[in-house]
Amino acid sequence: MIKDGIIKALEKVMGIKEQEIHLETPENEEFGDYSSNIALQLFAEIKNEKSKVKITNQNLKDSKSPRNLAQKLTEELKKDKGLSEIVEQIEVAGPGFINFRLAGTVLVSMLKEVIERADKFGESEILKGSKIVVEFAHPNTHKQFHIGHLRNICTGEAICRILAANGTKVVRVNYQGDVGLHIAKAIYGIQKIGFEDPGDVKGRMAYLGKAYVEGSQDYEEDEDAKEKIANINKKLYEKSDPELLELYEATRKWSLDYFETIYKRVYVKFDRLYFESEVFKLGKERVLEGLEKGIFERSEGAVIFPGKKFGLHDRVFITSEDVPTYEAKDMGLAELQFAEYNPDFVLHVVGPEQTEYFRVVFKALEALKPEIKNKEIHIVYGWVRLKEGKMASRTGNVVLGEWLLDEVKEEIIKTYKSEENVAEKVAIAAVKYSFLKVGLSQEIAFDIKESISLEGNSGPYLQYTVARTNSVLRKVKYNSYSRSQENAAFQGGDELSSDMSSSFRGNPALLARGGRHKNYNNYKDLKPEELSLLRTFIHYPEVVEEATKNYAPNLLCNYLYDVAQKFNLFYQKHGILKDESVRVEEQESVRDFRLALTAATGQILKNGLYLLGIQAPKSM
User: What region holds the DALR anticodon binding domain (predicted)?
Assistant: First the structure.
């Protein structure tokens, strides 16, 4: 990437590599394309006698202030021939910031790269050769799929796509609770209200939800019911009651069938489904083996992991009734995942309430299997809250994921008179983007009207901008987009568009004409809105990489929103197909250049939306 060239030049001038150099993108474009505070950092090291950073350049060591040091660094940087090919201007600002303005030739070459690489633009190989298991979704059978699950699955899928764009092999897995007390509560509820089969997937799930609420309430309020539910739980673990087992298996399938409809709707396809029922025995065995090795301890008839020895807290892994807990099951799950996929890392996308849980579980795993130390990572995502607080499926006060998707879709049809198939894609975008545009750990109070706005920071706004680029390109018989083929693999749907940049890639002369528009070595020859877009394109690969390193889809959302805003301003202020203010002899090259800008904008937006798990309709 371009910023790497600037960083290497700074390292060369300073003569050190111990000091980490960061380049920021200034919010104000007047300050250039990149900015560094390295002079301020380095000056502090110079004055620190205990600093481990050794500077051999006496001229730099004699600097009187951070600004003076920045000026000296700038003078040396300007002598670097390699840097001068990509940087047009280097200047010192404020107390010692160094600002870099890229050469116009670099910007137009990036424009060409966007068009020529098309769907591949922004991808890298920084994770090539690695394998990462991403475990997400986690809906329990016999319970409703609520909006917390919906945020989880949207988050997990976005992380998967962003990781894959950087070269890693991603394995999508889903770990689901299909045994345990919650199952027993649902089965008890079925026995209480009477078994019935509504026949359809949604009806079956609604019935299970009702049964679960009945069982949960009785468990809390009725000691006799509590004892019966505990007995059901024991029989299910032991598989000792054929009639009970038959009811369990049938209703378990109802849940899984329903979940698949949600996965398909949000373009998610798992490589492996793990269940508590397949890992609890293995997990219990490993805990008992660990007990013999002194990793676990007996306490009041239960088997615990002594977390207090490690600054954590003690947790029960096998109850006094000899039943393995979630913690024990995770021991078995980890063994299966590493045996089946041998990943470099396993990411668990789970809510914040499980933070302390995972600290203990990871420490226990480390003791049992030292070879997987530091390979298990908890990715925290925040709650989706209602006005009255967190969702609670125990009381029935729960907002279903499907309900939210349907409500958003209905609002889109009502507000924009959209066709059903378009409204569905826009609804998915509205919901996903609302979840992803904020930091993963940030809590969300979902606002339907805000989520579908075409004027604010929303998924539909980005889709609308893509549709606008398509509309412009269609007028000159340019087509758009090929990402749909990959999305189709996830959701079995139709292709939405063709290849946006094909006309440019297939016609070098056309691209060259656009690239010859005025003198790109001089920023003053470009309209501010044209320049602003070009400068923004430069940063897309960097944003994708940063989003990868930090598991932060919100960084990508922020960037895409910025691109969309800048394109729409450009669209409003300048004629793309024809501009009467342009001299006749320049109109063709100006038109082709602006078409290239339009094509590149659409390509970047669609590439980014794909990484977020969002489709871009041809038109809206």
Answer: 462-620
Looking at residue 587, its pLDDT comes to 84
Task: Please count the CA atoms within 13 angstroms of the CA of 27 that sit on its side-chain side.
Answer: 1
pLDDT of residue 503: 52
Distances 168 to 71, 126, 131, 165, 544 between C-alpha atoms, Å: 41, 8, 6, 8, 14
Please write the tens of the pLDDT for every residue from 36-94: 999 999 898 888 877 777 777 778 888 999 999 999 999 999 999 999 999 999 999 99
The span from the CA of 495 to the CA of 488, in Å, is 7
- Residues 549, 552, 554: CA angle, nearest 5 degrees: 145
Q: What is the pLDDT of residues 110-132, one digit of tens each?
A: 999 999 999 999 999 999 999 99
Angle CA(103)–CA(509)–CA(513) in degrees, nearest 5?
A: 45
* Of the candidates 603, 611, 519, the residue with the CA atom closest to the CA atom of residue 563: 603
- DSSP H helices, 351-400, are 355-368
Q: Could you tell me the two tokens for 148?
A: 């917390």
Quote the DSSP letter at residue 417.
-
**Please, what's the b/e burial string for 422-440 (b: 16 or more CB within 10 A of its CB; e: otherwise)?**
bbbbbbbbbbbbbbbbeeb
Question: What domains lie within the chain, and their CATH numbers?
Answer: 2-102 (3.30.1360.70), 136-385 (3.40.50.620), 459-611 (1.10.730.10)
Where do we find the tokens 């990793």? 295
In whole angstroms, what is the distance from residue 300 CA to residue 89 CA?
72
User: Read out DSSP for 16-72?
Assistant: -SSS----B--SSGGG-SEEE-HHHHHHHHHH-TT-S-----HHHHT-SSHHHHHHH
Q: Mean pLDDT across the stretch 161-184?
A: 97
> What is the number of other CB atoms lying within 10 angstroms of the CB of residue 16?
18
pTM of the model: 0.91
Question: Which residue has better confidence, 380 or 399?
Answer: 380
Rg (C-alpha) for the chain, rounded Å, is 29
CA atoms within 13 A on the CB side of 423: 16
